[in-house]
């Protein structure tokens, strides 16, 4: 894995069994070409190979180089949006279908992990969305009602049970979602890649698609050392669109998120901080995430990059946060710090694009990509096989430039730096 210092951090160190891949060389053909080796591309490749299609996946750098190898590892059900807001925004035709597909997406993730025996520290034992303010608690009450009306196993915990489950007195309550859980995100990507290879998919790393053109009915993709001709193309480059897909950037705006990991906790801290290793995050606009890994480390994350001087600024904030939120941890060093980028858009709904007849893409997961990427990869695989657009629970949209994207990127990055500079000093 490249750029490990501040990109993939702990995950690059503890993910085992990376697939053994080479760059594409020479001229190749396939039924379907998949561009991008994150969850969307890998799930598409796996499901296509299982259905007997010849599929070739091209990854610009390494499997999991993008968000898939850097994220928090919370396997959430649904999106950030509340169910009712999602229904209003997605409309009657798509809303309920989208809610169902995304609400059930953790089941797909954990069933793939089981079926392909993916070793990725998988825990399917709920997540905790923690209220760090009274208004946050109100929002969680609404979320609880809206999901319970749909029969989802979610429950709002009072402050005492929240304190017992988190090991912190900082929260007013927490919404426990039994559909969700945690994984080691990069290890899950490696596992999907190995499973796809096992089913006959061909995967290549260090093979950026630098050019694509239509050649009769086929698409012809060029990488620095090879070409691939395919009848259909799934573009799965998400928030890391490079080379031939740079222009996609204009239709999303970036939000960065960093994480820092302690050494494995010991003694009282080990027993009390998220004792069941449930993943947690809070209701703040500049949200914070808290989780443990299999070795017992505490991993704290929030909005921002850890480039340049921001490393020290956010690291100091994490230390203060641990002191105030989990005082039993005491003074511990932070062993790893890293960050990644996810793609947002103005209404927080994913977008389905048919870029050309048989060249498709679903993007903008707005910070929720483990379940959505896995499920949308499967659905895109189905679409390129049967052409049935009805099975995709999203309208077909044209990529649209977000003219305010630079403003939003600056707003979140600068806002997070200022907030973390000031917060929890007293
Ligand atoms: C820090 C962070 C925390 C997050 N936390 C969570 C979380 O807890 N839970 C959750 O569900 N989601 C989370 N997400 C979101 C999630 O990681 C992403 O939505 C998910 O990784 C998207 O998967 P993907 O396969 O679509 O794209 P990616 O994983 O980004 O993969 C895209 C791949 O395309 C490749 N690529 C780009 N251009 C080319 C090209 N021209 N040719 C070939 N390959 C190319 C890139 O190198 C990259 O590997 C988080 C994201 C980040 C960054």
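-> sequence recovered:
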């Amino acid at each position: 894995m490249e750029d490990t210092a501040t990109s993939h951090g702990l995950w690059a160190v503890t993910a085992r069994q990376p697939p053994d891949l080479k760059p594409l060389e020479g001229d190749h053909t396939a039924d379907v070409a998949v561009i991008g080796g994150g969850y969307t591309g890998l799930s598409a490749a796996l499901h296509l190979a299982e259905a007997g299609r010849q599929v070739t996946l091209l990854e610009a750098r390494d499997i999991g180089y993008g968000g898939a190898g850097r994220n928090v590892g919370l396997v959430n059900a649904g999106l950030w949006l509340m169910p009712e807001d999602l229904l209003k925004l997605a409309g009657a035709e798509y809303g309920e279908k989208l809610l169902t597909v995304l609400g059930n997406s953790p089941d797909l993730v954990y069933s793939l992990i089981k079926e392909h025996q993916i070793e990725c520290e998988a825990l399917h034992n709920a997540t905790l969305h923690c209220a760090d303010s009274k208004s946050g608690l109100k929002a969680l009450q609404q979320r609880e009602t809206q999901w319970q009306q749909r029969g989802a196993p979610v429950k709002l915990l009072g402050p005492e049970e929240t304190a017992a489950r988190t090991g912190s007195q900082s929260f007013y309550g927490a919404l426990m979602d039994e559909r969700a859980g945690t994984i080691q995100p990069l290890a899950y990507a490696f596992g999907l890649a190995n499973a796809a290879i096992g089913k006959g998919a061909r995967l290549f790393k260090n093979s950026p698609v630098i050019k694509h053109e239509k050649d009769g009915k086929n698409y012809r993709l060029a990488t620095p050392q090879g070409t691939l001709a395919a009848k259909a193309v799934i573009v799965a480059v998400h928030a890391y669109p490079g080379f031939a897909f740079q222009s996609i950037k204009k239709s999303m705006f970036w939000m960065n998120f960093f994480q820092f990991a302690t050494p494995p906790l010991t003694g009282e801290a080990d027993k009390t901080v998220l004792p069941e290793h449930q993943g947690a995050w809070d209701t703040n606009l500049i949200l914070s995430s808290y989780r443990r890994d299999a070795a017992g480390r505490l991993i704290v994350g929030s909005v921002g990059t850890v480039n340049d001087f921001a490393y020290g600024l956010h690291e100091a904030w994490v230390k203060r946060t641990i002191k105030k939120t989990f005082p039993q941890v005491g003074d511990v060093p932070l062993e790893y710090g890293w960050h990644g980028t996810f793609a947002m858009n103005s209404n927080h709904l994913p977008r389905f694009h048919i870029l050309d007849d048989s060249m498709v893409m679903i993007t903008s997961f707005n910070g929720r990509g483990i379940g959505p990427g896995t499920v949308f990869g499967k659905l895109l695989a189905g679409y390129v096989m049967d052409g049935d657009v009805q099975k995709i629970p999203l309208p077909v949209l044209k990529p649209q430039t977000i003219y305010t994207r630079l403003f939003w990127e600056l707003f979140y990055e600068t806002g997070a730096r200022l907030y973390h500079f000031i917060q929890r000093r007293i």
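The domain at 9-71+186-250+346-403 is CATH 3.50.50.60 (FAD/NAD(P)-binding domain).
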